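no rush on this but wanted to send it before i forget. what follows is a protein written twice so to speak, once as letters and once as structure tokens for the fold. mainly i need to know what kind of three dimensional shape the backbone takes. thanks a lot i owe you, the record is right below.
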Amino acid sequence: MSEDAPTSPSTEKKLSARTWYTLGLLMVIYAVNHIDRQVMYILGEPVREELGLSDGQMGWILGGGFALFYAFMGIPIGRIADRANRRNLIAIALALWSAFTVASGRASGFLQLVAARIGVGIGEAGCTPPAHSMVSDLVPPERRASALSFYALGIPLGTLFGLTAGGYLADTLGWRWAFYLVGAPGVALALLARLTLHEPERGATEPGADTGEQSLGDVFGFIAGLPSVLHSLLGNALQTLPLAAAAAFNPAYLQRVHGLSITETGLSLGLISGLVGGASVFASGRISDRLSRRDERWLFWLPLAGALVSIPFSAVAYTTGVWWVAVAGIGAATLFNHLYSALGHAQVQSLVKPRMRAMMSAIALFGMNLVGFGVGPLAVGYISDAFGGGDQIRVALLVLVLACMPWACIHYGLAARTYRADLLRKREA
């Protein structure tokens, strides 16, 4: 909203208790989504050692197999979510990915574990597209970045629990029990979601918006006519690539190069993600909403600045020989590079019609997961193998940061240039 734009009455309206409950439960579900994803990362080294796998094979387990199905299933799920009951879809997806997390603990070889992680990916694909659509229908546009940032707190909170609890359980009970114990509670949470989640009215926060069903051709045609959407998708996918690689292989890096135990690694990375990452994600929405009252383009400028500032901290983290400097570098980089986590989705949600929101979320996640979680861990795994494995994991991690972060910033800048014009096109469509 520009400086001379009138303030919407919805800005002053308080959110109802039911809205806050729905937002809170969606955030908890998203946290469980990331617990079941992140626990695989902290268990990577004991799994690799027991099953005799290479870094390249671990790339498929940690990212490739999971991300391919997560990305491709998101498109049809997004389409369904724009036409059907979103609450029921989330409940079914939660039960599915929780069951496959438990099944991961039964794997006895590479193919079985890949199959289980594919199942987790298919289930988790049913979470965020309908959730983003629900959040956008619960909260007015002026507060949407903050609401999506609140939902996105599930990422750092889930990572905090997944890494710390997963590391402790692996050291005390073994990696198989870690899968069992973090996966099982999701089934009960799925029942709670089915019984208590509120399904909001489409377009309720934007009176006069086009809430009619949109054909798939209409959705893609509308998006293709908005350059800022295309650059947002590219920027977020490119930034996700090194961050997904780091999430997958930072535990191995700290254990191999700096000699930390699984519990120490999980505690260090979990606290960074939960406290530092959580503060970054939550603050990004609040700061963006405030700055965007002066200039809407801060929705892109803020993650651009964060990505640039994070690069030297990542370089220190992967080149130092001192463990606490490495941990501090990862923490400082996280503070800045996680500013994009919620804002990337807020960027594209602001530009589409109500019946396009879940599909738009699925398309954004397709890019982030296919490029980020699909390519990132695979690239690190194979680059590490090419350099001889072992402590060369640090080289692979640094290469991706230096190659992808500046590239992502270019697309954020290009998106900001056309954002105002694209907002006008949406309103006139």
In short: Residues 64 and 374 are 4 Å apart (CA to CA). The radius of gyration is 20 Å. The domain at 16-428 is CATH 1.20.1250.20 (Growth Hormone; Chain: A;).
